[in-house]
Amino acid sequence: MKRLFFFLLLLSPSMCLLAQNTFEVKGFCISAPPSDQVGPFIDFLENELAPNGINTMVLRVDYNYAYESRPELRGENPLSKIQVKQIVNKCKTLNINIIPQVNLLGHQSWHSEHTKLLQVYPEFDETPHIALPENYVWPNDDGLYCKSYCPLHPKVHEVVFDLMDEILDVFEADAFHAGMDEVFYLADDNCLRCKGMDPAALYAGELIKINNHLSQRGARLWIWGDRLIDGAQTDIGMWEASMNNTARAIDMIPKSVVICDWHYEKAFPTAAYFAIKGFDVITCPWRKPEVAVDQVKMMHDFKMNSTPEMAAHYLGMMQTYWSSTTKFIEEQKASTGNEANAVTCFKAMVNTMKTIESPYGKLE
């Protein structure tokens, strides 16, 4: 008995260390604040994200910055350089790594309005023959969810690379999130440049161009992972996976890309697929706390039951939120703790991670 007790004393520190290092990334994804909400946003970082152990923030900037290189692409009420530096400096003190995002390729419109890129440069539109409706509904005859830019337009990268460079500089970032999710318009039959081409090759080619540009700056590319999953083979479908033949791109792209593997209705084990393919992966919930709990446990199980080489690919978790911090705070105040929304999902995610990483944590 004494020998067993002594053995456990020797073993427990390493076991505790392993548990405490389970989640390298404890992330939160949210839109950047408008310029008149920077103060409340900084309070949110200090009072909500940092106390919950968040160490990584994907900040969806898009056109909400006063670009100097491309002032024509400034959105309404954009962040100034001084305001961005306030956010950057606060994150430094809180040990939160900022990864700025600008949606590339897809998500170039929303409902009945183009995003700034296609407003200013309509010639970049992959499907200019499809008009945005006055009253948007889904589903629709055009299969319109969001517009894409044409990845083969000869001038599109001059513009988007300027945005990327300026965003990397002002946020002092060593990684960049390019979105690239839910790309439904690609290799369109009416596009003179893309017609008849392989969607997987087009998707991979665009990702490689973006990645190569970032690599020259010493920055790492992050993307959402849905276009790299075969929606038919997995039966996951067209939203959280691809039904338009882009999934084969997974074997054409650099392994340095970080995959943000989002699933909102069920804890699909696709993180293992990405890891087996050689990619670092982060699992992302949204608004169902039970899904977040299952995802955290799943990532923990993957990491604990893998070889060291494979375990290193399971980086952690990231809560996603698709509205403003103001809305998140409002939901917090109204929350009873029993409803299924992003607030309760976030709490479930961070609390489950804390339990796992505690030396005395126990998973049920």
Structure description:
With about 375 residues, the chain is of the alpha/beta class. The protein is built from twelve helices and ten strands. It has helices at about 1-20, 40-50, 80-95, 115-120, 155-170, 200-215, 230-235, 270-275, 290-305, 310, 325-335, 340-355; strands spanning about 25-30, 55-60, 95-105, 110, 115, 175-180, 220-225, 260, 280-285, 315-320. The strands form two sheets. The chain has an eight-stranded parallel beta barrel with strand order 1-2-3-6-7-8-9-10, surrounded by six helices. It has a two-stranded antiparallel ribbon with strand order 4-5. Keywords: Hydrolase, Signal.
CATH topology of one domain: TIM Barrel
Identify low-pLDDT runs: 1-18
Helical content, roughly? 25-40%
The share of residues in extended strands comes to 5-15%
Spatially, the strands of the biggest sheet line up as 1-2-3-6-7-8-9-10
CATH superfamily of one domain: Glycosidases
CATH architecture of one domain: Alpha-Beta Barrel
How many helices in DSSP terms? 12
Shape: globular
Name the structural class: alpha/beta
Task: Fill in the keyword field for this structure.
364 residues; alpha/beta; TIM Barrel; eight-stranded parallel beta barrel; two-stranded antiparallel ribbon; globular; disordered N terminus; EC 3.2.1.52
At a glance:
With 364 residues, this protein is α/β, with parallel strands linked by helices. 39% of the residues lie in helices and 14% in strands.
